[in-house]
Amino acid sequence: MPHNEPLTSLGIFQGLPENRRRELVAKGQVRHVAAGERIAERGQEVDAFFAVLEGQIKLSRSSLEGKEQTIYVFGPGEPFCLCGVFDTGAFLADAVALSQGRILILQRKAFDEAAEAHPVLLRNMVRLLSGRLRAALELVESLALREIPQRVAAYLRHLPVENDEVRLGMTHRELAKIVGATPETLSRALRRLDREGMIRVTEGRIRILDAEALARRADQG
């Protein structure tokens, strides 16, 4: 797969002329990563942003006691570490590869030059960051105010669905970390939603049976 292909689906590059997009990609660095490899860590100075070309990247934070909270799992076509092009401060989380894959690294200088010539990049970036902020606020609300089944329903309703099947893009263990549950508690919550006819869980795959009921469950306090 040509390493510029995933960029055509990146929201921040929409509206950018194709020749300019190719120039940007040429200025980037493609890096192969192994499962478990640390891409960036909390406290690290970062002056670039990254995009997943293949594989999955997990963004998480850990307490001094070693408890880990998964914040987001990025898949192909998704950018991460966006603060690297705006903020000179330290990275606020750990980014680790969940699987073997490839990422694109684009330095701040290259992005700044492109943004000066094409302001649409900045509008796209603001739109993307706004969506990430909304997702973060929903995660905080979910962890603080909802029971596990409601948290699971809230997370599932926002995932991409293809032929009524959720594109989970992660293991159940990682999903458990996102919703603040143990794998066992997550399994019980999924079985409960299954019994109530909202989803069907088969061999690790989740199919949405009643999207409206799932949304109502997610909105319960």
Approximate shape: globular
Query: Helix and strand succession?
Result: HEEEEEEEEHHHEEHHEEH
CATH topology of the largest domain: Jelly Rolls
CATH architecture of the largest domain: Sandwich
What is the CATH homology-level superfamily of the largest domain? Answer: Jelly Rolls
Number of strands: 12
Q: What class would the helix/strand composition place it in?
A: alpha+beta
Oligomer: single chain
Number of domains: 2
* Strand order, sheet with most strands: 1-8-3-6
> Termini, distance in Å?
45 Å
Overall average pLDDT: 84
Low-confidence stretches: none
**Radius of gyration, in angstroms, nearest whole number:** 18 Å
Helix content: 25-40%
Largest β sheet strand count, sense and barrel closure = 4 strands, antiparallel
CATH class of the largest domain: Mainly Beta
DSSP strand content:
15-25%
Count helical runs.
7
Domain Cyclic nucleotide-binding: 12-113
Protein name: CRP/FNR family transcriptional regulator, anaerobic regulatory protein
Pfam families: cNMP_binding, HTH_Crp_2
Domain HTH crp-type: 146-212
Q: What would you note in describing this structure?
A:
The protein is of the alpha+beta class. It folds into 2 domains: 11-137, Jelly Rolls (Sandwich); 146-219, Orthogonal Bundle (Arc Repressor Mutant, subunit A). It contains 7 helices and 12 strands. The protein has helices spanning 18-27, 108-117, 120-145, 148-157, 172-178, 183-195, 211-219, and strands at residues 29-33, 38-40, 48-54, 57-62, 68-74, 79-80, 94-97, 101-107, 161-162, 165-166, 199-202, 205-208. The chain has a 4-stranded antiparallel sheet with strand order 1-8-3-6. A hairpin with a 5-residue loop joins strand 4 and strand 5 (68-74). Helix 4 packs across helix 6 (183-195), helix 4 (148-157) crosses helix 7 and helix 5 (172-178) packs across helix 6. It is globular, with a radius of gyration of 18 Å. The termini are far apart. The mean pLDDT is 84.
